[in-house]
Amino acid sequence: MNFNPRSERKEATKFLYGLCIFLAIMLGFPSLANLWFSFNEVTFHNLTGEGFAGIENYKKALENPKLWKALNYSLKFAVIATILQLTFALFMVFTLHPLLLRKPWLTAILMLPIMVSPALMGVMYRLILNEFTGIIPGYLNMIGFHVTLMSRSMIQYTVIAIEVLQWTPFAFLILLTARQSLPYELEEAAAVDGAMGIKFNFRVVLPLITPAIIIVTFIRFIDSFRVFDHIFVLTGGGPGSRTTSISIYIYKLFFQRSELGESVALSFILLVISLTLLYFGLKLIVKKE
Amino acid sequence: MKFIIKFITIYFVSSFVLMSSASAITVLAWPGGPAEGALKKVVDNYNKTTNNDVELLYFSRDNFFDKMLADVAAGSKEFDVMLTATYSLGKYAPFMTPINDLINDEVLSTFSQGAIDTQTYNGTVYGMPTDLSLHFLYYREDLINELLSNSSWQETYAKISKEYLGTAMKPKPADDWNWDDFVASALFFTKSINPESPVPYGTVLQMKNLLFNIMIWQGTAASYGGDWRDSDGNITIDTEAYRRGLKIYRDLFDAEATPADSLSYEYAEANAAFGSGKVAFYTQWSAAYADFIKPGEYPAIEGKFTITNQPAGDMGPKTHFHSLGLGINANSDKQDEARQFLSYLGTNEAMSMFLTEGGQPPVTAPIMNALAGDRLDMLMMADHTAKYGKVMNGGTEGGAFSVYSNMAENFTAYWAGDMELDTAIANVTEFLEAEFAK
User: Fold this and answer.
1) d(CA B193, CA B180)
2) B330 in reach of chain A (CB within 8 A)
3) CB–CB of B264 and A126 under 8 A?
């Protein structure tokens, strides 16, 4: 059978039509509608717009000092959470890989946190961390640690810890898949050359799974950057605006201040930034490969 | 084959008969609490006694009003009757149908004019009031009685009040408290300040960045004469009343008289704290009383607590109050059916049933006295609303929701130590000026 890359690609493209139509309906239309909203004066009372606003909504969004505070928080949150998720995920891959080869069903148990919706996770932690009814403060008290995890000094660390606990399994799953795709012969060859254990993981595995690490970093960074659910449930973005992420800020602009145009314009700016980041991330991977 | 044709015919004919006999309307109601169960009973009774089919629809409580706003703004017809609240009437009024003509003599014998006013915006009635909400001081009778009779406790009380408030104070019955008594008692019942306190915390404050928490707090400012605006429309946040009210929370938080995680507390967390028996007293929504008196639900405080008015400021005790109600979605195609249902809600029969099933309707004194039984909260509600109730000037306007949210953001920042008092007040003042200028 003759292999023709061009016709193969043509055939493969056909399979993408369905996905493209789905995306066009589910994402394309709302995106276009939002783009239109962002250039118009829209209110809840008049969603069809009260007039063309030009770039006024974008200007207003970028001139608001609260935006920069929220962006700063989201950036810090995303950087810390992503580093921690990647570190823990890598550690888990290095240590659990041999065990999971023998007992693959254990992977399903490790994936449980990502199966819970983030909002529900927030509600769960509202109960778990409560000083009067929570299990965690109860146990900490029993062993002599009188720490209030939702106090003003701890609240920022607690919301990051929850993000890390929930999403490390996701990073772990992708890195584990990359690790498991490495041929066993490589391990044997490395062992013959004296690279075993930590040396093997750092000198051989790590460079080979770098493309997966890059993609996980980008996905987790973008996802953590737009964190909303569990923080909103636990703190409402407060106290003050101490835990107000960019998504919470946009939400409040939209629903609480009824600044529809400004919030939609801001969403659009963030969408463009996210897509740009993802584009460069993918480029980097292609280059690496 | 004959059987299949027969079956299909019967199916379609019966469906048609059912559809034509019952004109189904959907009511979007407030979920959870005793009111949910009570409304179900009332709706069941309405469906049974009339040839109608009313269905209840519930969103979750979290951001209920945001979801409802998005729906009505988009022209949704998914519900015909929708929730109304005093503090957001101005925001939803453009999406609702006025019901002034439904307010007849029978309705006015069910609800007082004051209750109807809580569902009125710019002279137009938009909702039938179903639930009244205000705040009480919930306190442990056993602890306060001991404080009033134990001389050793009173000595400590005087010492603590001298140290923190500058005056050696004498304990008073909770009914007569002013905010200084509240603060002094909270400090006295805090174990880290008074190791002999039988409970770890004097009080529990709800300080999460949430607009409903500001409604609870604003009783402090209102009791010192605080208001959003004066009669000329000038913003009056930068006053001693607001400063004193805000400082009460900040001082109690700094003194650790409220749990350290109070900055993430709202209704449920505060109830859990008081219900655990580890808190001496707190101010809370009236709805909590019905939960606390359920036998076996809160054994630590069962039979040990009672309620009274909030502490007084220079202007006496004050409490925020509002009513939730049901009004008509202007997008609905079933305006007549919705009006018929609201008319029923305005009858003595419907509200009597709602009250006995656990709701807190703002009914007139004759109905209340006949049916409230030993429900202390119900017996006190109408009286407290009349005597101490306060709706801020501008509190029902379109921007009221945004104002509460802005206050929540700035005032919680001050309580947490992230913002100076002057800055918080200046920010809120600036926001109110812009909001009311719209």
Assistant:
1) 17
2) no
3) yes
CB atoms near residue A198 (< 10 Å): 9
Burial of residue A88 (number of CB atoms within 10 Å: 0-12, 13-18, 19+): middle
The CA angle B247-B249-B253, to the nearest 5 degrees, is: 115
CATH number of the domain enclosing A131: 1.10.3720.10
Q: Cα distance from A256 to chain B (closest Cα, Å)?
A: 5
Q: Taking CB atoms and an 8 Å cutoff, what residues of chain B touch A241?
A: 209, 409, 413
Are the beta carbons of A240 and B418 separated by less than 8 Å?
A: yes
What is the value of ipTM here, to two decimals? 0.85
Q: Find out whether B358 and B378 touch, Cβ atoms under 8 Å.
A: no
Cα A254 off chain centre by? 22
For residue B260, give the nearest of A147, A20, A113 by alpha carbon. Answer: A147
Q: Write out the residue range of the structural domain in which residue B190 sits.
A: 135-320+394-437
Report which residue type is found at A100: L
Most confident of A35-49, A140-154, B143-157: B143-157
In which residue are the tokens 């789905």 written? A22
∠ at Cα B62 (B278, B356), nearest 5°?
70
Domain count within chain A: 1
Residue A48, pLDDT > 80, answer: no
- What one-character-per-residue DSSP string does A76-141 give? HHHHHHHHHHHHHHHHHHHHHHHHHHH-TTHHHHHTHHHHS-HHHHHHHHHHHT-TTT-HHHHHHH
